[in-house]
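Each lists chain and fold; for instance:
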Amino acid sequence: SIGRALNNRYRIMVKNSRSLYAVDTSSYVTVAGQSRYEMAGNEWAEVTRIRVNGTWLSFVSVDAMTTWDPDFEDAVSGTPSRWWWEGINTIRLHPPPDTSGIAIEVSGYRAPTGMANPTDTPIIPEEYHEALAEGAYAFLIKGIAVGDLVGRYNAMQGAFDGAAKELKTLMLRRRLAGAARHTVGPDREIVRN
């Protein structure tokens, strides 16, 4: 659908310029013997760290986990020491916790709410809206692009990729410029210069 294509490209464009994401920390609780946890709310773009019962866990990729412990799916419950992503909004803890009700603190970046209504406006700067639409169109025709559509797909995908890269650079420059204008004052408050 058009809405799905537009939101797909919107997420990509915003993810490339991480400063548009909302920084978030959310809390969940363990369930004894359960390693998989669905995280509610807007889509998590990136989880940067997880703490269980006050202890930071180490991130591990699924590939590394499989190498380290090929039978990790059958792990005996214990105190979690590692975590990894398993799809959008899902994390896994290893080993599965042996106690229910322990605090899980998840920190990272959440994607903005997807656009669902004709009046919704993306949070990206207006000069990138056309590239967003081109990227959505390219997403829609990607699987069916033959003949003349191949050239159109390549042009639109190229415009989208270029705009996404440009937006990332712009947001990085803005973030660095903002950081240069702030210092920490004597009372440990951030003071704008």
